[in-house]
Structures are given as structure tokens and as C-alpha cells.
């Protein structure tokens, strides 16, 4: 609750605007300062500061609830819960139906492994009629790296769901339900544009939000240092989590990887060095890989799916989930999209759960220029 947005609290509009103007966005930002520091920074009287701090504290500190009250709330909100099927039988079974509503789900993996393929298939599933296992809604697809392909989406639909896509006008209708935005950096995501996004989700019956990729949004910023990057990431984490809970839709975000070793702690694993005009395959390629957005982001997501390549075999791992043990499923990519080679997942134990591999990565198949 410390990351709850001040703009969504019941503060007077004038004082709320003053907080925003001084870049005090969350409850944690405000409550980390003394009343005298806030009075000096905001240039308002002590009485107003004390009133605002009291309201923020109450909003950030929800009352204790009994187990019975929590059970009653769950029963009341049962109709708001649900899942977006991935149409990967083993994965859907592990996740109790698919990608859950109301939380953040992350796809993390090296480039070319299939993250965008997975996202496009989800977008297709969300736009499908309910009679065919879809959500019968619109999708907002934030395509940061210009990897979204309408042709690829239609190809997946024709190959995966021919009984639907061969109906007259169905391919055009499904493609028309996926709204693609292409910002270049977090600067394009101002507070006003984010509010517009929130209103658009509610008005247009949006059933899925995809951000592909959050890492690319951050790397597009011209920042003086990592501290500003982490502040902006923290603000957007708070917004995405509150949006998922408020709109009760699945939000799927992709995350890239970086290498972590003694020589290069921040270089992406796929960046090979050049030596005498030839590509040198250094041990950076097979070094330990980690998710690029760091530990704060890892704590924010509810579901983490890791896509990796090990000895030429692609694998999707359920690395973090409150409803499933860590599981690994081998998969491949065909004209129909991602397909599991087996619906029986292999349970993972030990450090292999969080390790990310990118070996044998040169065998990626390219469909219409998209396989990332």
C-alpha cells in the first residue's frame, strides 16, 4: 500500500496537484518526509500538511480484517476473477486457467526466444468470441520496439483457429480489436496520457493490456543516472498494479535480460564483442543471465514466466506463481505460434528456477520477420 498513488486518494484537488507538481507521487514519497520538510517543499501551511498526511496514512494503512471477512470479500468478488487462456494446455493447467485477471504477469527472456510471439497470441485470444474461449474484448498493445505484426497475428489465427478465422470478415474484425500504441520512451507516458489510457480501458471494453517491452521504454530515456530510472520504474509499477486491480484485466509485460559476471555486469548477453572484424563468442554469451529490470520489479509481478533456450531446446518456465510450483515446459514456434512439446511440466528445484539460459540460440525460426 506504500506505493498507492496520491492522485487516487481522497485529497483536496488543490493539495493533490501541489504534491504532483513537486513529484511526490506515492504514499511512500509523502510519508518518508517530516511534516516540516513537506511544509517547506510544498509551501503550504502546517494545518493543511497535517490533514493531508493523516488522509494519506489512512489510505496507505488499511484496517485489519478477519479471515472470515476476507473469505466474504472473496465470495463477493468471485465474478470479477478470471483467466485469459494461453491455449497451451499444460501451462493453462498450471496457472489454473491461464493468465489471471487483476495482476501483473511478466515474460522474461533473451531476444528472439518468443516473447512477442507469446504476446501476439494472447492478444488474439483476448479478442476472440467467448464461444471460442476468448474474452470478446479489445486489446491495447504497447509496442515499444515495433515488433507487433498484423500479418503474423492473422497467420496465427488462421493456423490455430481455422474454424473461426475462415468465417467471413472474422480476421478483419479480430485484427481491428487490437489497438497498437508505439511510444518511444517513458517520457511519452505522462500522467495525463496514463489517465487517458485508464479511461480508454474502461470505455472501450479492453480485456488485455500488453507492454512489449518495459525494458525498452526505460532504455529510451535520457537519464542522468540510475536513481531517476528507478524512481520512474517505481511510479509505473504502482500505476500498473493499481490499474490491474481496478480494471480487473490481465496485464502482461515483457522484460529483457542482461548478463551478470565479473567482467560485464550490465551488458546484454546477446552482445558479442568484435575482434579483427569477426564476431568473438566470449563467455559472456553463456554467462549467468538475469532479468534486466531488477529486484524491485521482480517483487512487483505476480506471475513470472521465463522463456529460455538450453542446448537448442526452447523452454518456458513458471518461475514465480502463487498457484503453481516451478515448472518447465519444452516448446517450439510454428506458423500457429508457440506450441508445447509436452503438456506435462517438469518440476524445478534449486537455483535452476531463476537461472536464464540462451545457449543454442542461433536456431530461431523466423516467421514474417517476427520471432522475438
Main pleated sheet: 10 strands, mixed
The share of residues in extended strands comes to: 15-25%
* Strand element count: 16
> Counting H and I runs of at least 4 residues, what is the number of helices?
14
Q: Kindly state the percentage of residues in helix.
A: 25-40%
Low-confidence stretches: 262-287, 361-371
Terminal CA distance: 35 Å
Average per-residue pLDDT, rounded, comes to: 79
Shape: globular
User: What integer value in Å does the Rg equal?
Assistant: 22 Å
The sequence of SSEs as H and E is HHHHHEHEEHEHHHEHEHHEEEEEHEEEEE
Which class best fits the helix and strand makeup? alpha/beta
Write the layout of secondary structure elements.
Layout: H1 13-21, H2 27-31, H3 35-42, H4 46-60, H5 67-76, E1 83-84, H6 89-94, E2 99-100, E3 104-108, H7 115-127, E4 138-143, H8 150-160, H9 162-165, H10 170-176, E5 178-181, H11 191-203, E6 206-212, H12 214-219, H13 226-247, E7 251-255, E8 257-259, E9 273-275, E10 278-280, E11 289-291, H14 294-300, E12 303-310, E13 313-320, E14 327-334, E15 337-340, E16 346-347
Parallel strand pairs: 3-7, 3-12, 4-5, 4-6, 6-7
Antiparallel strand pairs: 1-2, 8-11, 9-10, 12-13, 13-14, 14-15, 14-16
Describe this structure in words.
With 372 residues, this protein is an alpha/beta fold. It contains 14 helices and 16 strands. The chain has helices at 13-21, 27-31, 35-42, 46-60, 67-76, 89-94, 115-127, 150-160, 162-165, 170-176, 191-203, 214-219, 226-247, 294-300; strands at residues 83-84, 99-100, 104-108, 138-143, 178-181, 206-212, 251-255, 257-259, 273-275, 278-280, 289-291, 303-310, 313-320, 327-334, 337-340, 346-347. Strands 3, 4, 5, 6, 7, 12, 13, 14, 15 and 16 form a 10-stranded mixed β-sheet that branches. Strand 14 and strand 15 form a beta hairpin. Helix 3 (35-42) crosses helix 4. The radius of gyration is 22 Å and the shape is globular. The two termini are 35 Å apart. 36% of the residues are buried.
Amino acid at each position: 500500500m506504500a506505493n498507492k498513488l496520491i492522485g487516487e486518494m481522497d485529497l483536496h484537488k488543490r493539495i493533490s496537484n501541489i504534491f504532483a507538481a513537486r513529484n511526490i507521487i506515492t504514499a511512500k514519497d509523502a510519508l518518508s518526509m517530516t511534516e516540516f520538510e513537506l511544509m517547506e517543499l510544498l509551501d503550504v501551511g502546517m494545518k493543511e500538511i497535517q490533514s493531508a498526511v493523516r488522509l494519506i496514512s489512512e489510505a496507505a494503512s488499511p484496517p485489519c480484517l478477519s479471515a472470515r471477512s476476507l473469505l466474504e470479500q472473496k465470495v463477493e468478488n468471485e465474478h470479477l476473477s478470471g483467466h485469459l487462456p494461453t491455449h497451451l494446455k499444460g501451462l493453462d493447467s498450471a496457472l489454473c486457467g491461464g493468465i489471471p485477471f487483476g495482476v501483473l504477469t511478466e515474460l522474461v527472456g533473451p531476444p528472439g526466444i518468443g516473447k512477442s510471439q507469446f504476446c501476439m497470441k494472447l492478444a488474439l485470444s483476448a479478442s476472440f468470441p467467448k464461444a471460442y474461449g476468448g474474452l470478446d474484448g479489445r486489446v491495447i498493445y504497447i509496442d515499444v520496439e515495433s515488433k507487433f505484426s498484423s500479418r503474423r497475428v492473422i497467420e496465427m489465427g488462421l493456423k490455430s483457429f481455422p474454424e473461426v478465422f475462415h468465417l467471413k470478415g472474422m480476421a478483419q474484425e479480430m485484427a481491428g480489436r487490437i489497438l497498437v500504441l508505439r511510444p518511444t520512451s517513458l517520457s511519452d507516458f505522462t500522467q495525463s496520457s496514463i489517465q487517458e489510457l485508464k479511461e480508454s480501458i474502461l470505455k472501450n471494453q479492453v480485456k488485455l493490456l500488453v507492454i512489449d517491452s518495459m525494458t525498452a521504454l526505460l532504455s529510451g530515456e535520457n537519464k542522468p543516472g540510475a536513481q531517476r530510472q528507478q524512481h520512474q520504474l517505481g511510479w509505473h509499477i504502482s500505476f500498473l498494479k493499481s490499474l490491474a486491480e481496478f480494471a480487473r484485466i490481465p496485464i502482461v509485460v515483457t522484460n529483457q535480460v542482461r548478463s551478470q559476471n565479473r567482467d560485464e555486469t550490465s551488458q546484454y548477453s546477446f552482445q558479442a564483442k568484435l575482434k579483427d572484424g569477426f564476431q568473438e563468442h566470449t563467455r559472456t554469451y553463456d554467462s549467468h543471465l538475469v532479468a534486466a529490470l531488477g529486484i524491485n520489479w521482480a517483487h512487483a509481478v505476480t506471475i513470472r514466466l521465463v522463456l529460455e533456450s538450453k542446448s537448442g531446446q526452447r523452454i518456458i518456465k513458471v518461475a514465480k506463481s502463487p498457484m503453481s510450483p516451478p515448472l518447465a515446459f519444452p516448446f517450439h514456434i510454428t506458423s500457429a505460434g508457440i506450441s508445447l512439446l509436452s503438456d506435462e511440466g517438469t518440476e524445478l528445484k534449486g537455483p535452476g528456477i531463476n537461472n536464464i539460459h540462451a545457449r543454442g540460440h542461433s536456431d530461431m525460426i523466423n516467421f514474417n520477420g517476427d520471432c522475438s
